[in-house]
Specification:
The protein is an alpha+beta fold. It is built from two helices and two strands. Strand 1 and strand 2 form a beta hairpin.
Length: 92
């Protein structure tokens, strides 16, 4: 049994935990991690590339974004700058 120091000198034994200490206490709710999206609210699909003019994703990528794994979203995010550059070059 553990002891707690008493300010006045001798130590007193602490009672063994019974599990009752947390009875009725609810754990904090688990909040889902927000999913970062490249959307900038400029939603227009380019008919030549099939990419959104704002975020450079395809309709399939946009529609499935919340169901993609973090690795899949990360892969797409890495591709977006090149898609944007390609889109800009096509307009020039």
């Amino acid at each position: 049994m553990a002891s707690a120091p008493d300010r006045n000198g001798p130590t007193h034994p602490l009672p063994a935990p019974t599990g009752q200490e947390t009875a009725g206490v609810q754990p904090a709710p688990i909040r889902p991690t927000p999913i970062h999206s490249p959307c900038i609210r400029v939603c227009s699909i380019n008919p030549k590339t099939s990419w959104c003019e704002g975020c450079y994703r395809t309709l399939k990528e946009i529609a499935g974004w919340s169901r993609l794994t973090p690795d899949e979203r990360e892969r797409i995010m890495r591709e977006l700058p090149a898609r944007g550059a390609d889109m800009a070059a096509r307009k020039a």
